[in-house]
Structures are given as C-alpha cells and as structure tokens.
Specification:
By secondary structure, the protein is an alpha+beta fold. 32% of the residues lie in helices and 21% in strands.
C-alpha cells in the first residue's frame, strides 16, 4: 500500500486540526511580530526580467468569466502580455497600506491572514518575447526570474502521467505553498489553508484566462518529487500543490533532458527563525504520488454523491439572466475586490444570492472533477437577511437550482458562534458553509483527495468573492468550529466534514 492509500493519515491530520471552543481557548500560540515572515520569495543572485504592466480591457463581464470556460482544444498561445495580465490578476499587488510597524501589500486574490504563502512558477516553450524555460514570478517587482533555460514541458507531461491539458499547454503555471509563511499565524491548520488560498488564486486565474481567450485547466495529480525537483524547491519548506495548464497547441513537447539537476539557488530567509509543524509535512508526504502510473490511475472518476430528495420547503433560485446581470469586466472586479471587515446588517436580494450561487457552481475544469461539472463540496447556508427568503438554515440543490429549508428561524447568533465567535458571520446577509463527504472522497482519491476537496472549496469561494463584488457586494472567508458546523446542519449533514466558510453581504465601513 502506498502512503496515499493509507487513509488514516488524512483522518489523523483532519481531526488533529479541528477547531473547537476548548481547543481555541487552550492554545497558547501568539503572534511574534518581530519574527513575521517576509511575504516575498527573493532569489539573491538572479536578475529580474520585468513584465509588461499594462492591464488590457477585456470587456468580458466578471459574472460570465467566472461561470464559463473555453473548450480544451481551443488553439491559443499566450504572449508575454497575456501571461503578465493573468499573473497580475491572479497574484499581483493591487494595493498597499502603511501602518506604524510597516506595510501590507494586498494582492489580487484573497488569502488567509494576508500572508500569501502561494508562490507561482512558469514552465513554457518559446512564446512571443519570452524564451522557453522555468521561471519564478516575483509579485513585488512584477518580474520573472529564470531558474532553468530550455523547454521543460516534457518533464511536466511525464510527471502528470500524460495529462492532455499539460502535454498540449504552451504555458503551465505551477503553484507552490510555503509552510512557514502561513504557519506563523495558523500553525498546523495551515495545510488546509494551502487549498483555500491556492483555490481563490486559481478562481481569478481561470476567470482571467477565459476573458483573454485561453483554455485553462487545474491539475492536482502529479509526481510530487519530480515537480519539486524541476522547481528546485526545498520540500521541507515549500511544495508544489497544483498546476494550471494555459492555452493549447496541437504539437506535443519533446522529452526533456534528464535527469533534472539541482540548482542550489540562494534565497533570502523568510524570518530569523522558522518553527516546524511536522503534521503538515506528514500530511503532504502521505498524499504524495510517486509514479506516472499512479497519477494516471488517480485522475478522474469523481465520486457521484447526490443530496437526499428534498423534504423541507423549497425555494427556486432566481438568478439574473445574461441580459440583466452586471456587466463590470473581470479585470475591474478583481482590482476592486477586497475582504469585507464589516457588513451592514441590511438585506441583499434573492436574485443577487441566486446569481452568486448559480454562477459560482457551473463547474471547474480540473483533473479531479470528471465528468465536467462534478463537485466534491455541498453548500449549506445560514440566511440572515435576504429579501424573498425567510431567515433559516438551507442546503443548495445545485442540480435542481433551488434551496431547501432545513430549519427556519433567526440564526445570526449561531452563525457568529460557528464562525469562531466572530461578528462577521452574524452581520452577513448569508453565510455559505462548504461540507463534504470525506469518506467517499478519500476512498476514491486516497489522501490526495484531501488536497482536492480543500482546493475545490477555495476555487468555489474565489468565484463567490468575484460574483459578490461584481454586484457591488462584499465577501470574506472565515474559519469555523468544525464539528459544531456539521452538528448545526444535521441530521441532513450527518457524516460530512466542514471544509470552508464564506460570508456574503453589503460591506460597511469598519469601526476603528
């Protein structure tokens, strides 16, 4: 049995990192501001290659871009301007704020604690104004640094077991996650955040690619050691988490020279010292794949779980039509997106909520979601203030495009409690909880299914963010008391695990 099939590892990590009222109150952890990690990975000896900074106006409405994707075999090769725009709208710095202790650089996609542990790398063949090679993206300078010269796409194709989207992609964006940068605040629970934060970034990437005419696909199945070696990362500190194939060419890449040699490139330390949380590395190792054959067998065949036939009152969704929806272009919506720090306790409309749900859940092009449109997470809601919808607890029937009321009542206080006793969920118009049948997911995908379900939740959350801001509303992601969330939505949610929480509503100016 490979480590990936030893499912006790995922359950052990999941249960050990659950939040409860007792665990939160007994945790002695504090933020050591003097040891806060740098938000940027800096290669000390490599010269930056500046990227074009102009943001093209696509004219594609955000609500269309998040809901649609191009056919996989659409001939398209990004030039360096297109690549730069996708990188900027995915992970670029969109604003900054000074404070007495320093400066915070906010980026295009939401991230837990604004710590930005996701790094981006590029593997490409020759494209206009960029030679074939392996590059690291530096958001602070908005530049690339070349780590390797030559066309290494064949290495990626082999590492993904011949995944067609990767094999035919002129460009692949690789997402890695850095343990310490997020664990400084969130400790061992950080491995969950890898999926959330990588996912919100990928939601932006997929939408931007669609608007720019590029087919894109998320790939979670690959031989970990081979990809980490290609990027020359120290896998005790930083690991590849997902790939995003971008564009399509008919010709397959030539086999890359092997073996891939170590580079030993010097990088600037993130902090004076790093604290190790072994549970994260153990979870990553237990969910790693070790051969192309194992990767090929891992892909697809998503478990098909259906919600029970509704027994409670139902409310059909009423989303805007294409003609009625907001037309704000995706690039404008991404640039004004933030994370709400306070909600006005005023209603949103059922049409607005319906549009967010319907647009965000039309399907994600990913190697673990086959057939197209499959989904691992179920969406449960606490509705506080939605015109045309009674307050209460609901479950979203995506296939029937309706909400089923599980119990009626004012649950603002319960929403706040479940969201780690914070005000935001109690103030929000609606809270969307992602719950999943981990048992069936792990049975199909092994421990790597734990990565996939967290990543999908992050992508769906990122789409909800964009759908909210496209309608001039607000959103924020939150953590939660795990078992209490399942208990609140039971018996309907019995046996499921809480994965993520997003609060939606009208933003209000935060009290200072």
């Amino acid at each position: 049995m490979t480590d990936n099939r030893n499912l006790e590892a995922a359950w052990e990590y999941h249960n050990a990192t659950k939040h409860s009222r007792a665990s939160v109150r007994s945790n002695p952890h504090f933020l050591d501001w003097a040891n806060q990690p740098s938000p940027f990975k800096i290669y000390a000896t490599l010269e930056p290659l500046p990227m074009p900074r102009e943001v093209r106006q696509t004219g594609v409405a955000a609500l269309s871009a998040i809901a649609e994707s191009l056919p996989a075999q659409t001939d398209a090769v990004p030039d360096v301007e297109t690549l730069a725009q996708i990188l900027y709208l995915s992970a670029g710095i969109t604003r900054h704020r000074k404070y007495p202790g320093g400066e915070i650089f906010f980026r295009a996609a939401a991230c837990t604690g604004a710590l930005y542990e996701v790094e981006l790398y590029i593997v490409c063949g020759d494209i206009r104004r960029l030679e074939a090679g392996v590059y690291h993206f530096s958001p602070g300078e908005f530049a690339l640094r070349r780590l390797r010269g030559g066309d290494c796409r064949g290495t990626l194709s082999e590492a993904t077991g011949g995944e067609p989207a990767i094999a035919h992609a002129p460009v692949t964006i690789l997402c890695t996650c850095t343990y310490w940068r997020n664990a400084w605040k969130y400790q061992a629970r950080t491995y969950r955040h890898f999926g959330w934060d990588n996912g919100t970034l990928l939601a932006n990437l997929l939408a931007a690619a669609t608007a720019l005419g590029m087919p894109a696909k998320v790939v979670c199945g690959f031989v970990d050691e081979d990809v980490n070696r290609l990027l020359d990362v120290d896998s005790d500190r930083e690991v590849a988490f997902s790939l995003a194939a971008l564009g399509y060419v008919a010709d397959l890449p030539q086999q890359s020279p092997s073996p891939i040699s170590a580079l030993h490139l010097e990088t600037v330390p993130l902090s004076r010292r790093e604290i190790d949380y072994p549970a994260m590395r153990e979870m990553h190792a237990a969910s790693s794949l070790h051969s192309a054959k194992e990767v090929a067998a891992w892909r697809g065949n998503t478990p098909q779980t259906e919600l029970l036939t509704p027994t409670g009152p139902i409310v059909p969704l009423e989303p805007y039509s294409n003609e009625e929806m907001a037309r704000d272009p995706i690039e404008q919506v991404i640039l004004r997106r933030g994370s709400s720090r306070k909600f006005a306790q005023t209603p949103i409309s059922l049409v607005q909520l319906s549009t967010m749900l319907e647009r965000a859940t039309r399907g994600i092009p990913a190697d673990f979601l086959i057939p197209q449109g499959a989904q691992l997470n179920d969406l449960y809601l606490i509705v506080n203030a939605v015109e045309g919808l009674d307050p209460g607890a609901y479950v979203y029937h995506r296939d029937r495009q309706m909400l089923e009321c599980l119990k009626a009542g004012n649950f603002r206080a319960e929403a706040g409690y479940l969201g780690l006793e914070q005000l935001l969920p109690s103030e929000a118009a609606a809270n969307i909880f992602f719950l999943a049948d981990l048992q069936s997911i792990l049975q199909r995908f092994g421990n790597r299914g734990y990565r996939a379900v967290q990543l999908e939740a992050g992508i769906l959350s990122g789409k909800l963010y964009l759908a909210a801001y496209a309608q001039r509303l607000g959103a924020t992601g939150l953590t939660f008391y795990d078992d209490e969330v399942t208990g609140f939505f039971s018996p309907h949610a019995e046996g499921k695990s809480a994965i993520m929480l997003v609060a939606l509503g009208k933003s209000a100016k935060a009290r200072i």
